[in-house]
């Protein structure tokens, strides 16, 4: 029985200690404390939920200020340092909140700029107390000692360098999204870009251009009178180039690299017995940056031949038949000259 009473007493004592710990965290010891700021931030956000218009934004603005102030106060009471630096972990947390507040928005709370400026803001928050001395009620500015200035400069400069590298990552990510054909290039000569994914064997946008262009060319040439086809193939008519620009605008309109592709055609005569024909090469040419000084292009060859047919009036005529390669070929170097 005594053991049972001891166990029950121990449970109550544990619950009492747990309650005291929670109460110490949640109930501020005095009105001017970090808990007060946190509660004010929560209260402000609740009010902003029911407000409308510019009043909603004003209340939310003060909610962010209260949250930042409360978090900064709490994390600086017993600061835990980032290993290898004198930067408190609280400054990192506060810097993140400040960055979200300054560069976030309602659609995207965390934006690329939020991440980019986070290290620099955290370093500045760490450095600010080094220029202030005294208590909360009697504080004044001071110039840090020379040894303190050195570590402040190193911390801020290192954080700014980290921000620059993070920004560089986002720039590269944007380039690869808007210029996906760069993923088919090689970065072996680069001293700061390392490929982490398998290299794309062929530029997808260049292949898309020829895939979409092929059926249009086939439709305009197939079963067309031979004389009209020969006129269609004349270089001065620029039929393929015109169709190519339309295809690029329609299928690559969402990419910034659309202006770095152009379409050209190369036509060669062929002779098969007594029949003459043509080889039409459809070229999508990349004019953007490349590790190859001469660039590269994709080619899809089409064979155009004469076949006999009967017109609507019953007369024998000669029309064209066109057959194109199924896949595009990637060729390094400049396209062949026009003939």
Task: Kindly state the percentage of residues in helix.
Answer: 40-55%
Characterize the quaternary organization of these chains: single chain
- State mean pLDDT (0 to 100 scale): 80
| Helix and strand composition category | alpha+beta
How many DSSP H or I helices?
9
Shape: elongated
Percent strand equals: 15-25%
Order of helices and strands: HHHHHEEHHHHEEEEE
Would you kindly provide a written description of the structure presented here, covering whatever features stand out?
The protein has 339 residues and is an alpha+beta fold. It is 49% helix and 17% strand. The strands form two sheets. Strands 3, 4, 5, 6 and 7 form a five-stranded antiparallel sheet that branches. Strands 1-2 form a two-stranded antiparallel sheet. Strand 3 and strand 4 form a beta hairpin. The termini are far apart.
Which features would summarize this protein structure in a list?
339 residues, five-stranded antiparallel sheet, 49% helix
Blueprint (SSEs and pairs):
Layout: H1 2-26, H2 34-50, H3 53-75, H4 89-103, H5 112-127, E1 132-134, E2 139-141, H6 146-178, H7 204-221, H8 226-232, H9 239-251, E3 261-272, E4 275-286, E5 296-310, E6 316-324, E7 329-332
Antiparallel strand pairs: 1-2, 3-4, 4-5, 5-6, 5-7
Describe, in short, the structure shown.
It contains 9 helices and 7 strands; from the N terminus they run αααααββααααβββββ.
